User: Fold these one by one.
Assistant:
Number 1:
Amino acid sequence: MADLLITHIKGLVQVREATPAPVSGAAMNELPILQDAFVAIEDGRISSFGPMHTLPSSLTANESIMATGRFVFPSFVDSHTHLVYAASREEEFVMKLKGATYADIAAKGGGILNSAAKLRAMSEEELFQRSLPRAWEIIATGTGAVEIKSGYGLTVADEMKMLRVARRIGQETPLTVKTTFLGAHAVPKEHNKEKYIQLVIEEMIPAVATEKLADYIDVFCEQGFFTVEETIRIVEAGKKYGMRPRIHANQLHRSGGVQAGVKTGAISVDHLENVGDEEIQLLKNSGTMPTALPGAAFFLNLSMPPARQMIAEGLPLAIASDYNPGSSPSGNMPLMISLACIRMKMTPEEAMNAATMNTAYALDLLQTHGSITKGKQANLFITKPIPSVAYVPYAYGASLVDTAILNGKVIRES
Ligand code: NIG
Ligand code: FE
């Protein structure tokens, strides 16, 4: 007997028999959809699915939902966020509207250092209470698994505080959470850069590893932040403690971040607003997932990554939100998909693959997340009645998620 049975689904999206690899190149435009379908859930996993005419009459369930006119999608996997933070920064947003650049604001002690000052002054409990609603907010817009970075602490104690809060979000909400240590996000005012890098390598990384607080290590490889050489030094130190690299690369300049990521075996390189042929060639067959963050590029008015060229060259591409108070104050994955379609000319099918299968790969979650596959974790959502899959990016800003189901359980509270 199933725990939950969803029947008469207009379109069951992203059905895969098996998902051994992420989707690349032309295959990104293939999004398998079963029409007039059912899906059954047992013990938190997808136990079976198929067309309605194959639904066995013997298949009974504790709870049934009729999804007539509605689509069912696998939950989004958001592989890049900074959703643990103390406070919003709309005052900087207004400065930017009046002409200040991201770099101007950072140079004046705003930006990341502004967030760090606020976070250091806040208790771990309050930081958790401030961050928790953001976790529920992304659940409501269809996310089921999320990566959360540190990087607004910039001291041993405050980086650990952030990562503990991130881990606690994974324990106290139904989200699957992966964590990333981003001590090298900016150099705090009280240190010179070399001293700070030593602190990151010699104290922060070992301390974070002792409490098993981070799955990955990240560096903001960018002019005015950390160079390629520094990035490599820092992530190599993290690798010794079992943290695989993922890198903030090529956001504001052609920083060499992609080269640093591929060289160190990063699982992903993220941002990529400034890449050219050299980076695209390097990424081929590298195992490193190129990840676009269209919300951040939109919010900062940057050019978008060359998605069409990347896909034409056979690369995979992932899309994540970069949810953070400075450059992307939204974790709404349907909106990211709209931006990917509108601004990067991705098809709705490509954007869906980018935000499910490919982000699952980028978090080492492809075995359990990112598609409707027998045995995978039952993370999915039922839409409101909608005419087609393309309607999701088309109706930008609309909230089309009706019912989220995580670990097989219908989410009823927040
Ligand atoms: O991914 N680029 C670096 N870090 C963040 C922004 C952080 C901030 O401004 O608070 C990003 O865009
Ligand atoms: Fe980021």
Note: Residues 193-210 form the longest helix (18 residues).
Number 2:
Amino acid sequence: MPHISTGEMLREAIAAGSPLGRKVKSIVEAGTLVPDEMIGEVVAERLSRDDVRMGFLLDGFPRTLRQAEILEAVLGARNEPLTAVLELEIGEEEIVRRLSGRRTCPACGATFHTAFSPPRAEGVCDACGGRLAQREDDRESSVRTRLAEYAAKTAPLSAHYRELGLLRRVDGAGGVADVTERIFGVLGTVETA
Ligand code: AMP
């Protein structure tokens, strides 16, 4: 199923220098949230495409109660309720450690970590040989701003989705394989085509 990351869509718009990208560049780099109606339009357009008919994974959306309302309106109009909402739980210092060490390859999208998953040659992508880069908002000051935005605007969504019976909380400690297994555990049997 398509993995729809609103952050990734915004980074692509910024890299392309599109009108949307020019509007959001300084907001994304500082680590604050782009306006709800603006990101709502991006998601509504993405969910209007054919490839989401059999399901989709939204990553990083909704991030505010208003965005949850926008999503409910978009899905409600198509009679397609959400199946589950995943909340990954991890301490703040671990988040800072993970994000400040993250390096990505702008050419092919591969992701590395300076300590947990280093590339074979420092600063060079194992997959395509591209030069690795650090996301502007993975610098510690932006990460702290993102955490504050999360606490103020996104954390209230947990109660909203708990009331709807959709919330699935997953311990985010440990490695990728451990967390993946826990996610499949809370989602139940995953059928593949
Ligand atoms: P992410 O890749 O999910 O960490 O998002 C990176 C940045 O993109 C965030 O810090 C925001 O500036 C922006 N962004 C991504 N998704 C949203 C959203 N749902 N609402 C507002 N801003 C967003």
Note: The chain has a mean pLDDT of 94.
